[in-house]
Amino acid sequence: MIRRLVLIALICILIPCAAMAEGAKFGIVLPLSGPYAAMAQDMKNGAMLATDQVNQAGGVLGGQAELIVKDSQLKADIALRRVKEMVEEEHLTVIGGNLSGAISLVINEYACKNNLLYMSYCYNSLPVGKEFCGKGFTSAVIPYQNPDALATYAFKNLGKTWMSLSADYRGFHDMMASWMYNSDQLGGEFKGNIYHPLGTRDFSTYIPRILAESPDILVLNNYGADQIAAIKQFSQLGLTKKMKIVISKTHLHIAKECGKAYDANIYGGATYYWNMKAAGEENKKFVEAFTAKFGAPPSGDAEAAYVGTKAVWQAIAKNGAADNVDALIDALTSMTVQTPKGSEQFRACDHARQQSILVLRGRGDQSKDWDVFEVVQEVPWEETLQSCENNKNNLPYGNVPIPTK
């Protein structure tokens, strides 16, 4: 026993004990199967790239940064089970991922009760009201932010009358509240909402009612395969020639899959576009590295996962350990992260990422390869992110009644 202790002491003299650390682990859950699978894969790729770059630069805590990825199947119970497995089997204190605001809230509740750091990659309401417990961060935005930017643009430039087609899901309810509030503030005239189940592929049955109302603007509050199906069918049946379509959250792969159907009459909200002209050298390096590794440029989901993962590794390195959650939170809220969009921070009061919102426009048959959008406007975060006090009290959107079924 004495001989072993002497040997350890000698090793620590020759090699600093801190350097003998075995790195750190970060576990994420993503819906790699189900209607959001393509977007989840893009998130996984972003997280993998961030981790690879950390390891290429020497790792973290004297060892390798290890990313553990599990499939949630877009089901809350499975997502929670996978998180519990990682925490119990891998002894993780830092978890993340998700592409569902509702599932993010479930994981956030678990993180709060078990003193875990949770870095969510998707649009969610973790920073708002009772959902905020101080353990969760979002590397995307709060769902109300996209509609806030889009509504301001749409009611000024596209028309006043509008109706919406919404997936019956928590995140899209939050987006709907933002649209309703902004409509009231900006003189919009609401003509009704249609809810559709998650996983809908036939949208033709909704068209007669939409045509009967004849709004200037049709708002889509859905995502993934649902959004692709809706855009293709609306284009085929001539709806995009009769009104402007504004999508609360859109995606690079959605526009690519829709092809010429995603035309100049379709607008969408996003946090990132790989070919945004205002971005600088950091974005150029990110796009080149991502494209070289995965064969296509990064989407907004990929960028959110990349930034969230990069921030986690940076905080662990700054803190010198991965097991002190409170110290990691202090690190995350006191540091600046170099993102593809520039230098950004997570706000200390609610852990929201301070980033701009993009208003995008489809290019249809003018698209060239992956250059499928025109950036119409970039809206600073100060114009869409509510104050700390408002978020704490879930204002103003928490009191807005949304349409019932």
UniProtKB/TrEMBL annotation:
Keywords: Signal
Domain Leucine-binding protein: 25-363
Pfam family, one: Peripla_BP_6
SUPFAM superfamilies named in the record: Periplasmic binding protein-like I
Signal peptide region: 1-21
UniProt xrefs under PANTHER family: LEUCINE-SPECIFIC-BINDING PROTEIN (PTHR30483), PERIPLASMIC BINDING PROTEIN OF ABC TRANSPORTER FOR NATURAL AMINO ACIDS (PTHR30483:SF6)
Family label: Belongs to the leucine-binding protein family.
Protein name (record): Amino acid/amide ABC transporter substrate-binding protein, HAAT family
Highest classification ranks of the organism: Bacteria, Pseudomonadati, Thermodesulfobacteriota, Desulfobacteria, Desulfobacterales
